[in-house]
Write a structure and sequence with these properties.
Elements (H helix, E strand, L loop, with lengths): L1 H14 L5 H13 L1 H24 L2 H9 L1 H20 L12 H16 L4 H11 L8 H32 L5 H25 L1
């Protein structure tokens, strides 16, 4: 189990670089609500990665076949979700920013980033490639599979901790009047990501 845990951490570090919509969400929320908000957002994405890693590690072909079969519809839903969050972020007023998120906002942050992470069924193929690259083929035992999935969570979450920490340092060194500009910038980034996903989905 220990070896698979280490392999999972390496897979998470190599394939869990915080790019894309969740990366923008994590940075924006850290700037507006603090490190805790960024960590909660990142945790939602890591949880989604863990579920996809489970599918690959334990060979749940029925689930993977279903997700890949309907990935265009799932991607469409994800694109709309990201687009909506981008528009909301774009028109967000700086006065709504708080130092720390309350419990309700924390749950919403986790669920929204988890939902965005889950709208990428192709992640299953990424993990299958990563597993084969590390010499992990076919179904693993229960203990090995759990170690592998836990390692993926740890590896990906290290990136979110790093990103949240970097955003918090930037927040400390910046002037407070930067928030409206940053919110609009991250909103535009999310709108761009959502539009790209929707256009790509329609073209397919």
């Amino acid at each position: 189990m220990g070896l698979f845990l280490i392999k999972g951490i390496l897979i998470g570090l190599l394939f869990g670089v915080p790019a894309g919509a969740v990366g923008a969400m994590t940075a924006q929320r850290t700037l507006n609500y603090g490190v805790k908000a960024g960590l909660i957002t990142g945790m939602g994405s890591s949880a989604a990665d863990c579920l996809y890693a489970c599918v690959g590690a334990f060979g749940f072909t029925l689930i993977s076949d279903f997700l890949l079969k309907y990935q265009n519809n799932i991607n469409l839903a994800g694109g709309c979700l990201i687009l909506g969050m981008g528009i909301r972020m774009l028109i967000m007023k700086s006065s709504k920013a708080k130092d720390t998120p309350d419990s309700t906002n924390g749950i919403q942050m986790f669920v929204s980033s988890f939902a965005v992470g889950m709208t990428n069924p192709a992640a299953i193929l990424t993990f299958l490639f990563a597993f084969s690259w590390f010499g992990i083929y076919g179904q693993t035992g229960l203990a090995e599979g759990i170690g592998l999935v836990c390692g993926v969570f740890i590896g990906t979450y290290i990136w979110w901790v790093t990103l949240s920490g970097a955003a918090a340092i930037f927040k400390k060194k910046s002037k407070k009047d930067y928030l409206p500009v940053m919110n609009r910038m991250f909103g535009l980034i999310l709108i761009l990501f959502g539009a790209v996903i929707l256009v790509r989905d329609f073209l397919h």
